[in-house]
Amino acid sequence: MLVAVVLAAPGLAACGGDDEPASPKEAFLDAGNDICDDLGFELPEPKSPGEVIAGLRRATNERKQAIEKLRDLTPPPGDKDEVDELLDAAEKEIALSTAYLDLSEAGKESDELEAELEKVAEEAARLTKAYGLEECVDD
Predict the structure, then answer these.
(1) CA 27, 74, 3, 65 torsion-angle sign
(2) Long-range contact list for 24-28, CB < 8 A, 24+ apart?
(3) Which residues contact 61 (CB under 8 A, 6 or more apart)?
(4) What pTM does this model have?
(5) How far is CA 95 from the centre of its chain?
(6) Considering 49, 83, 119, 130, which has the largest number of Cβ atoms within 10 A of its Cβ?
(7) CA–CA dist 60, 95 (Å, integer)
(8) Full pLDDT tens readout for the chain, 139 residues
(9) Taking each helix axis from N to C terminus, what angle separates 49-71 and 24-38, rounded to the nearest 10 degrees?
(10) To 5 degrees, how large is the angle CA 108–CA 7–CA 58?
């Protein structure tokens, strides 16, 4: 089971009224949520297990690139630890997803790895949603 957490932002985007600048957190959240909307990866109807794995690898790589873009941003004042924590959890999910896909591709299963992936994905989703990047969580 893969729960995708997609986090990204190419830069801080302005939001709010024309005359009123947004707070740094609002700009950060708007940019991140916009990117997550754009990265909505959908798998085509799979014709084989290999196609499913290939599609999930593409989605995992896109999530990884998105996280890297968000890491390049300066978090809003006072939010560095919270942003680092959610990005660390998302990166751990990516690593576990990759390991899970590697096993699946080899025709193997690991209930332990699947359980750990599910636990980490739920925590990453919880942290991400709590911070306000709601569009970055695949419910």
Answers:
(1) positive
(2) 24/76, 24/77, 25/76, 25/79, 25/132, 28/73, 28/75, 28/76, 28/79
(3) none
(4) 0.78
(5) 12
(6) 83
(7) 9
(8) 333 444 433 333 334 445 454 799 999 998 888 777 777 656 667 788 888 888 889 889 888 988 888 888 788 999 999 999 999 999 999 999 999 999 998 999 999 999 999 999 999 999 999 999 988 887 6
(9) 160
(10) 40
- Cα 47 to chain centroid distance, Å, stands at 26
Q: Which amino acid is at 98?
A: T
Going 68 to 56 to 126 to 116, the CA torsion angle's sign is: negative
Domain boundaries, the chain: 24-136
The dihedral of CA 107, 111, 114, 120: what is its sign? negative
77: tokens are: 């004042």
Read off the tokens for 28.
Answer: 């950060």
Q: Which tokens is 87 given?
A: 């990005």
Q: Which residue has the tokens 């390991």?
A: 99
Burial class (CB within 10 angstroms; exposed 0-12, middle 13-18, buried 19+) of 26: middle
Q: Which residues of 59-75 are buried (b: 16+ CB within 10 A; e: fewer)?
A: bbebbbebbebbbebeb
